[in-house]
Design brief:
The protein has helices at 13-26, 44-58, 66-74, 84-88, 90-108, 146-153, 218-227, 230-233, 237-247, 252-264, 270-278; strands spanning 2-6, 30-33, 61-62, 113-118, 121-129, 160-163, 170-173, 178-181, 195-203, 206-214. It has a five-stranded mixed sheet. 42% of the residues lie in helices and 20% in strands.
Length: 280
């Protein structure tokens, strides 16, 4: 049995296409997309349409991520339309506008997690979710301890636990559970700019996990920031997302630690805070 785990596409269409081309050759039995298909990138609509087509034609399994939740928050009547918080969430609102109401409805229907049984035996399932069983924003990192990971994997422990969210790929065999973080298709944060996805296989001696890294057309991915209007219309944080793509390192979390409260309190504009951050 061969299972592909994709996660954190983040509207990076060229990276997604490179992974799909690789899957055509590997030919997995199942494909699981573990959330964050959309948002934090310029071509969410195209990525969403493509994975939807694969779900309809090939039975792909799509899961909810925190960035789908961010987009859905903007669809609520109480979502602010002006002020500092609205500016901070402008990327998600732009994504919602690109997706449209019908796609937003489909996002709401995405499940939080999935379990696949091995040959019908539920006793040894593969469990997948976006962050962990504790929530879409509760991730498994390279520094997470075995005790922390087991708590995040849920009870009873599965044979294999597959996640994304952190944008940092890993494979760890804890004896009681094989843990696989697929990393990020479209926005890796481990310093390696190549697209990342995971291959999980069942063999006679048990489960195995591997991370695959793929080159793709990064020049086109950067052009998409300009050609789609994302950089111009999605607000100042779009500039930090472009920097994340270029460096393969997270930027928004560090920006938030330094400047978010000052922006929310009105002490500093979002535009000025981003300028200061990028000048560091």
């Amino acid at each position: 049995m061969k299972i592909a785990i994709l996660s954190d596409i983040h509207g990076n269409y060229p990276a997604l296409c490179a992974v799909l081309d690789h899957l055509e050759h590997w030919r997995p039995d199942f494909v699981i997309v573990a959330g964050d298909i959309v948002n934090r990138g310029p071509r969410s609509r195209e990525c969403w349409q493509l994975v939807q087509e694969r779900r309809a034609r090939e039975g792909w399994h799509l899961l909810l991520g925190n960035h789908e939740e961010y987009v859905l928050e903007q669809a609520k009547d109480e979502a602010p339309l002006e002020g500092p918080r609205a500016e901070i969430m402008r990327v998600s609102r732009w994504t919602l506008e690109q997706l449209g109401a019908e796609s937003a409805q489909a996002l709401r229907a995405l499940p939080f997690s999935l379990e696949l049984a091995m040959n019908g035996h539920v006793r040894w399932p593969l469990r997948a979710t976006h962050g962990s069983m504790l929530g879409t924003r509760d991730g498994i990192y390279p520094f997470s301890t075995p005790m922390e990971i087991c708590a995040k994997a849920g009870a009873p422990l599965p044979a294999v636990f597959c996640v994304g969210h952190t944008h940092q790929p890993l494979v760890r065999d804890l004896d009681v559970v094989l843990v696989v973080n697929a990393g990020s298709v479209g926005l890796p944060f481990d310093g390696d700019p190549r697209a990342s996805y995971a291959q999980v296989t069942w063999q006679r001696d048990g489960w195995h996990g591997a991370i695959v890294r793929l080159d793709y057309n990064r020049a086109q991915a950067e052009r998409d920031f300009y050609e789609t209007g994302f950089l111009e219309n999605a607000g100042p944080l779009a500039r930090l997302i472009l920097r994340e793509l270029q460096l393969a390192r997270g930027q928004i979390y560090s920006w938030a630690q330094q400047y978010e409260q000052a922006v929310l309190s009105g002490e500093l504009s979002l535009e000025r805070s981003v300028e200061r951050f990028l000048a560091q």
